[in-house]
Amino acid sequence: MGELVFVGLGLFDEKDMSLRGFEEIKNADTVFAEFYTSLMPKLSVRRLEELVGKKVKVVSRQILEEESGQQLLEEAKKRKVVFLVPGDPLMATTHVDLRIRAEKMGIKTRIIHGASVISAAIGLSGLQNYKFGKSVTITFPQGDTVSETPYKTILENQVMGLHTLCLLDMKAEEKRYMTIKEALRLLLTVEKAKRKHVVTLNTLVVGIARAGSTKPIVNACGLGELMDYDFGAPPHTLIFPSKLHFMEAEALITLAKAPESIREAVE
């Protein structure tokens, strides 16, 4: 019986993987990878193959979701298969499902963790991890329909005094990656309909671009001002802070250029 090893590649390029992950790849019989669940801006499959000395088979969303990863599972029945994923393994439901299927088939699975955008974005903001509520993804509209879920999640977290981490949608096959400006416009559309003053032009928001890169951008200010800020290329992430501890306010002012006036909102 073989095994299936999930290896997290981290956030930016092929150099982000851990040494343990590198060793697992070197000892693998077959290496698969997917790049549709998250964007690694500077990753090159060619450089990755040169680095590990192995051929990397890139699999599509169809193979993993519509075909339930059968290609990987059949290979893992008799060989050591390493599956490379952006960020940290099992953050995507697709990967959890694949691991469950493997275990039910008697295939041993192991996880080699990598950096996650969740911890990276929160860390870059300087906000305290334990003060975050439920995270949410702001998705592209379906036709003319804009999802209200992100708006409702921000509201629910604010009622409890908790911050909200918003991941932004991506469609890798179409090379479409939602920007901060697009995400804020969608939230304002919902605000216009709901009128609960959850997301207004004066709402304090933290925008983060290219977390995990050598030069990430972090900026905190009013939503209206943030929409005009040039964050450059994706991936982008948003944080809606709630009530601030004095250390969090200091971090946002120092690390994210937030206005001094946010000290007035400190608990």
Strand content: 15-25%
Instruction: From the 3D structure, determine the CATH topology of the largest domain.
Output: Methyltransferase, Cobalt-precorrin-4 Transmethylase, Domain 2
Order of helices and strands: EHEHEHHEHEHEHEEEHEEHEH
The major pleated sheet works out as: 5 strands, parallel
CATH domain class name of the largest domain: Alpha Beta
Strand order of the largest sheet: 3-2-4-1-5
Total E-strand runs: 12
Helix content: 25-40%
| Global geometry | elongated
Q: Structural class of the secondary structure composition?
A: alpha/beta
CATH architecture of the largest domain: 2-Layer Sandwich
Determine the number of helices (DSSP H or I, runs of at least 4 residues): 10
Estimate the mean pLDDT confidence: 95
How many domains, in number, for the residues? 2
Name the CATH superfamily classification of the largest domain: Tetrapyrrole methylase, C-terminal domain
Distance between the termini: 57 Å
List segments where confidence is low: pLDDT < 50 over at least 5 consecutive residues.
none
Radius of gyration: 20 Å
